[in-house]
Amino acid sequence: QVQLVESGGGSVQAGGSLRLSCSVSVDMNGYSFMGWFRQAPGKEREGVAVIFISGGITYYADSVKGRFTISRDNAKNRLFLEMNRLKPEDTGMYYCAAATDFVPRTTRLRESGYQYWGQGTQVTVSS
Q1: What is the pLDDT of residue 1?
Q2: Contact 51, 72 (CB under 8 A)
Q3: How far apart are CA 74 and CA 87, in angstroms?
Q4: Are strands 4-7 and 116-117 parallel, antiparallel or unpaired?
Q5: Strand 18-24 versus strand 4-7 pairing type
Q6: pLDDT tens for residues 6-59?
Q7: Per-residue H/E/C for 14-55
Q8: Contact of 109 with 68, CB cutoff 8 Å
């Protein structure tokens, strides 16, 4: 059974940094894309950053470009999200997700393209 387990969330002040990790229970080279999504209270889940597992190409939501960096360690089956210059609007539950099929460019930041999900880790940014 595939398991994605997130860690690294917490509470920080605006301007601070956090590094999220996602441990994958299977060989992540079997996935096409992996990504980080987040959901704020009362809002829909949105894509934050996605990475092409074999090639390493990355995609970001406009709201986090220049502040967040997604990376992966294929040998250790781990996905990371480095978050800098955090803002209160970055607050939410952050989820790790994985896709086994090719995800078209137009839908890479949409949750519908991803089959496997973690339970999430909470990020709270105070002003």
Answers
A1: 77
A2: yes
A3: 30
A4: unpaired
A5: antiparallel
A6: 999 999 999 999 999 999 999 999 999 999 999 999 999 999 999 999 988 999
A7: CCCCEEEEEEECCCHHHCCEEEEEEECCCCCCEEEEEEECCC
A8: no
Tell me, what's the pLDDT at 55? 86
The partner residues of 46 in beta bridges, in order of sequence, read 38
Tokens describing residue 86: 């955090």
pLDDT tens, position by position, 63-114: 999 999 999 999 999 999 999 999 999 999 999 999 999 999 889 999 999 9
- The amino acid occupying position 93 is M
Can you tell me the distance from the alpha carbon of 58 to that of 45, in angstroms, rounded to the nearest whole number? 19
Amino acid at 97: A
At 12, the amino acid letter reads V
User: Which long-range CB contacts under 8 A does 53-56 form with residues at least 24 apart?
Assistant: 53/28, 53/29, 54/29
Nearest to 89 by CA among 41, 33, 55: 41
